Amino acid sequence: MGQAHAPPPAHQGSPSGYEPRPVIRNHPRNIKRTIVEPNRDQDAAPIFWTTGRWGEPARLEKTGMTANEAKRAKKHYQTPNAPIPEPSKEVFAALNDLEMLMRATLAALANFNEDEKMILSRRLNLEVETAQQRGEYSPPGLLNMAQFRHAWKKLSVRVSEEQAAAVFIKYGCDTQGLLPLDLFVAKLLASPARLLAMEPEQKGPYKAGRDASFRGKVTYRYCRKPVFTPSSWDGSPAYRSAKKPKAGLQLEFVYGYAGHNNTAPNLFWTADFKIVYYIASVGVVYDPVTHTQKFYEGHDNDIRCMALHPNRIIVATGQMANALSSAEDDMPYVEIWDSRKPGAMIGRLSFPNEDGQSYRFIVALGFSGAGERLVVVTGDNRHTVHIYHWKSKTLVYQDVGHNGTPPAVFGVVWNPFTMESNADGAPVCAPKMFVTYGVKHMKIWTVAHVDSKETYQTSMGKFGKAPVADVMSAIFINAGTIVTGAPDGSLLVWDVSGQRGQFGACIQIMSAHDPGPKAPRMSDGIMALQGVRALCLRANNTELCTGGSDGTVLCWDLAGGTLGRIVKKIELQQVGEAKPCSFRALDSRAGSYDLIAGTDRCEVWEVTKPVPEALVQGHTDDVCGVAFHPKRPHKFATVCDSSNVFLWNARRRQLSAKVSVQAAARSVAFSPNGAHLAVGCATGAVKILLVEDLTKKVAEQHHAKEQVCVIKYSPDGTKLAAGSNDNYIYIYNVLQGYAKLAVCRGHSSYVTHLDWSVDSRMLQSNCGAYELLYFEARTGKQVNINQRDTQWDSWTCVLGFDVMGVWQKDTDGTDINSLCRSNQLPGFRDVDPLVGDESYVVTASDDGKLRIFAYPCVIEHAPGRSYIGHASHVMGVRFSPDNNFVMSVGGDDRSCMQWKVLPIAHDDVTVDAPLLADYAVYKPPKREALGEAPPLVIPAAPMDDGGEARRNAEKEAAMRANMRKYEIVTTTSNIKGAGTDCGVFLQIYGDKKASGQVVLENGPDNFSKGKVDKFLLDLPVMGTLQRMIVGQDEKGNMPRWHLESVSVQNKTDNEAPVMFHCGQWLARDVGDGRTVRTLTPGSNAMASRRYKVSTRTSDIRGAGTDANVYITLFGEGPDGKPVKSNNFPLDNSANNFERNQTDTFDVEAMIGDLKYIQIGHDNTGTAPGWHLQDVAITSPGMADMQFVANRWLDVNEGDKQTYVLLYPGAGAEKQIHEYRIHAFTSDIRGAGTDANVTIVMFGDAATGALNTGRIKLDSSKNDFERGNEDIFYAKFSDLGEIPEVEIEHDNS
Fold first, then answer.
1. Do residues 1151 and 1085 lie in contact, with contact meaning Cβ atoms separated by under 8 Å?
2. Count of alpha carbons within 13 Å of 185, Cβ hemisphere only?
3. DSSP state, 1083?
4. Which stretches in the chain have pLDDT values below 70?
5. Which residues neighbour 836 within 8 Å (Cβ) at sequence distance 6 or greater?
6. What is the pLDDT of residue 605?
7. What is the CA angle 672-675-681, rounded to 5?
8. Strand locations in 451-504, DSSP E?
9. How many Cα atoms sit within 13 Å of 131 on the Cβ side?
């Protein structure tokens, strides 16, 4: 190493001096960064650089790449040729200090006759002249590193070799590694503002597959301030950012239980003595023996209810509709899964919107006594009760549960004592009766059979002498008796046998529990008593256990068949809690006295032990902050709005300590030595606690006027920064008892994130106005010089150069709530799973997902791995110091999720549901390939057929010669509900031939959400493809499909693929109702757009209407042709279109650019007349449009029309023509009619008007009599020539 090698000898027989090209061999990898010539087409020159004077500037590059690396980088980089090694990041980070020292030295030497610029220029030129006098090669105006260092040495500034290399790289040098002295002088002494303004600028992050070597200023839409590339940036980290990260996460444990918003029991023992419950969007199967959990992760939003099959194996969970999806996909569903293998789904019951009404969420679930039936109560205003034969997904019966704002029904309970004998004589529990209960009601459902069809009769429970109140819980204690819990803590006993009084009447009131403290009522949020929320039977149904809001569990004797005396009382007392807990669920292990309970503090308890034991602990309010102990990476702290601070042990997966700080806590941080815990409060207070004893308070400060939502210690532990919603960052001096040191001012909105530099001198911070600002910690002054080379101790800011690629498509600047970069701490190298690897960054978003990316993340919409578990906004996420854990807190779902960091991620795999012995899994019938030709079978020919066999063989050979292998690729959109299990078919038309109808099917998971499916088919040569017909046959359980695109490629002839864009629904009940579409090549296909339609009824007498109102949208497609939508009904409430009322509706249509509308009613109801003031239509990406009407739509007012065309910005009279319509009734017997006659006029498409819609033909005289001519007038836009009319009557 280091020895010079003699050049190879001249090749024999070659001209003198000729040397053969050396052989390139694969040498050991030796990475070195050097300065190289730039890519002239893509690199921007440094500030003040003059190419005509100094030539092309150099740029950084890697050398010594492996063959694979060189091949990958070939597209973007050139071969390096200048030997200036790149200094370390630490040298670049300290470069600002060196520059400040240089400026200060020059300022001290400046005098009246010579300023700083003159002194520095004279000194540098003197170095060049001295070298020339010595006979050394030294071009005028250019310095090498040795000359540069010597010049500053003469000025009393020591510059190391690494520092000099960093200066040359930052300020720019030529391809020979020489620094232009004029350039250096100008840039060193120029004002920071001028340098920032002159930086070359790039719009947006780097793009995948493109050059990423740009150095300069980068602007992107999520950040109001520009960000800057590091001085040493050469683009190579972008290659890693463009790939999906190697590392990943795996959910390991969830702290908490959904006890704050459940309305029915959601905690059960399973057959194998596990405990099943849910929290957020995760179903949890907890093993109390090993203290471990398994998870069912098939939901994408909040789980709201749970039911356990009588076999205690099968679980049903119902979730909320996903608000991030479109209205058509905004549907709740029920997942049925196996608790023994939670990764396996057995089935799903979906509840799509009907008539524009959403079911919102699943309110309650209940399996029948034998498990054959599943009752599902949905969250519409009618609380519709659906009774399913769940194995076959057959809807048996459906009816109204209870009218009101959901949840007005709290739960459903089947009667498990209705025993019958089956065909074998064995006793079975028949599904004969169940009850639904909730807001001031209990409804009894009894099975009845009408014409061999299963129906249910209903009757309301009668409170009798009991006060009418909410029914909080219910349970059958025998075949004819129900016990319910009341808000005041009492128990009500009801007779459903009819033998002890009136059927369904309350026959007894039992005093049981104290009312307990008030809590928000689930139906309306008003503070109210919670009473008895949990009931269960135990000890083979000989005892009834009741859980109240007074923190007690009472066990009642049922030996006599009725509710007897109290045999046991269990009190749950928790240290540090002033109020008793409220029990939300109870369950007993089959045949035993073991009892588990879920509380409103989101905890799971085993209460039958001599001392009740908390199995799983949780939070008592919304969780906002999380932080790891810096010295003990298995310890972490969380804070929540209930004023509690929690200290946890991740190894033991349990709570270590809890303390109240007497104010809602919003942020938390450990000091670097782990001794202090800082808590930021909603009141603006900052409280410092001693970690070893959380009850001891070290300090408390009250400078912030609003909540402190981010708090962090400096790396050296001497300062504490607290960012507040009052737009300021407060710096406290830890060494002086947390006295206020400085206030950082400059943000125009609330501070959201902040980070310290490694040297504890600088702060970077983000705010709600999407600003990225820098501050000097000692003084609090804002720093306007870019910090491109500053090293940050942590990176939790969501804005900045290093994380500009974490933002996904269709997001705004508020979607990412938290971010954290992985750690690289020397003290944990032995246990760090990511040691030796590059860094990663994890984000927490409003959509409930965690995402992990390679760091730095600089590629636009960078690929990452996403993980769902939280139900809604994920408020915080942090890596542990040793990178073994990632902790995330979920805000409103009150959960904390512990994720294991995997050095090599496992991609998701589909797990088939196991076949259980005691039930059959419903399997949909396999779709047949409709229209698919049977295989060609050629019968054996006789020996003497006159050459028929030969001719058939030749014909078959010719046919096969005319066939080509085509690859058809379908892309199903990545939106909720986009997938389908229906049969998909298409037909392709070319300029030579058509394909005929082709059915696409090669697997059971075809056409799933976001999936790309490929099909290889033998088709005739079609020539240039012109159009395609694609559709679905509606013969499945999901009869809708949102198709993104289809591509067709002739693989045999290796032709370019032809893309057919769609971007629309193929569904009967969504969009325009079409299940078959015609597509053409190219990208002019119209996309479906959602419109918000707001109608304003006038404030005059009688302006409202009871009629059915409809609207039709007219637009213009990309080809300039007019497009018309369906006739949409506007109905989302019983009280729409009242006087002086604005009603808002959502419609979706594919019409291109909206031009005008038609709105009207069907003249039904008691008061159909309507005075419409105006219509407003809005849609994302479209300017708001107003359509002024100010007219009657009434057969007795004005022009007697019930429909009107409206144009934006003007009334109905704009561009309206009056048409006279003559109707001639024939002069034959019975020719006249008394029915209602309507006409539709079809216009010339060139005018932009498609048709008028139905116009009622009616005047004051007796119309349509035999032999008469009737004349009618109608106002409409210019239809041009009218080639066609459609006239009909309603047969009334």
1. no
2. 19
3. S
4. 1-56, 58-83, 193, 323-329, 356, 422-423, 425, 576, 907-961, 1002, 1071-1072, 1083-1087, 1210-1216, 1244-1251, 1260-1261
5. none
6. 94
7. 85
8. 453-460, 473-478, 481-485, 491-495
9. 20
Whole-number Å distance between alpha carbons of 1162 and 1256: 10
Query: CB atoms < 10 A from the CB of 24, how many?
Result: 7
Q: How many CB atoms lie within 10 A of CB 409?
A: 27
The three-class DSSP label of residue 984 is: strand
Query: What pLDDT does residue 9 have?
Result: 40
What per-residue confidence (pLDDT) applies to 327?
A: 53
Structure tokens at 29: 């990898």
Structure tokens at 369: 């006594």
Parallel, antiparallel, or unpaired for β 201-203 and 217-219?
A: parallel
Kindly state the greatest CA–CA separation across the chain: 126
Structural tokens at position 301: 């939003």
- On whether the CB atoms of residues 777 and 761 are closer than 8 A, the answer is yes
150 three-state secondary structure: helix
Q: What are phi and psi of 481, to 5 degrees?
A: -135, 135
How far apart CA 1109 and CA 1171 sit, in angstroms, is 12
Give the separation between CA 385 and CA 373, rounded to whole angstroms.
12
CA distance 125 to 109: 17
Strand, helix or coil for residue 155: coil
DSSP code of 725?
T
Write the CB contacts of 36 (distance below 8 Å, at least 6 apart in sequence): 58, 59, 60, 61, 78, 79, 80, 81, 82, 175
pLDDT of residue 1159: 93
| Whole-number Å distance between alpha carbons of 1227 and 1236 | 20
What is the rounded CA–CA span in Å between residue 142 and residue 50? Answer: 13
Q: Which two tokens stand for residue 850?
A: 């965690």
Q: Is 916 strand, coil or helix? A: coil
Q: Distance between CA 45 and CA 28 in Å, rounded?
A: 34
* Residue 726 C-alpha from the chain's centroid: 29
Distance (Å, whole) CA 762 – CA 757: 5
Quote the CA–CA distance of 133 and 1063 in Å, as a whole number: 75
pLDDT for position 430: 85
Separation of alpha carbons 445 and 180, rounded Å: 91
CA angle 617, 620, 622 (to 5 degrees): 115
Which residue in the block uniquely carries the two structure tokens 């990406």? 1181
DSSP classification of residue 12: T
Cα 201–chain centre separation: 32
Helix (H), strand (E) at residue 161: helix 161-171
Q: How far apart are CA 616 and CA 292, in angstroms?
A: 10
Give the closest residue to 1154 by CA, choosing from 1076, 1108, 1086.
Answer: 1086
Residue among 572, 577, 575 nearest 598 (CA): 572
Sheet containing 409-414: order of strands: 409-414, 433-438, 441-450, 453-460
Structure tokens at 426: 């064995």
* Dist. CA 1106–CA 1109, nearest whole Å: 9
SS3 content of the chain, % helix, strand, coil (to 5): 10, 40, 50
Q: Are 300 and 867 in contact (CB under 8 A)?
A: no
Alpha helices in 178-325 (DSSP H): 181-189, 192-197, 236-241
How long, in residues, is the chain? 1292
Rounded Cα gap, residues 1038 and 1051, in angstroms: 32
Q: How many angstroms separate the CA atoms of 1063 and 1083, rounded?
A: 10
Q: Are 1000 and 1006 in contact (CB under 8 A)?
A: yes
Can you name the residues that pair with 1137 across neighbouring β-strands?
A: none
Structure tokens at 1165: 């109801």
Q: Do residues 1030 and 982 make contact, with C-beta atoms less than 8 angstroms apart?
A: no
Q: Please give the pLDDT value at position 961.
A: 66
Report DSSP state, residue 815.
S
Name the residue among 792, 789, 788, 756 with its Cα closest to residue 775.
756
- Would you say 363 and 377 are in contact if contact means Cβ atoms under 8 Å apart? yes
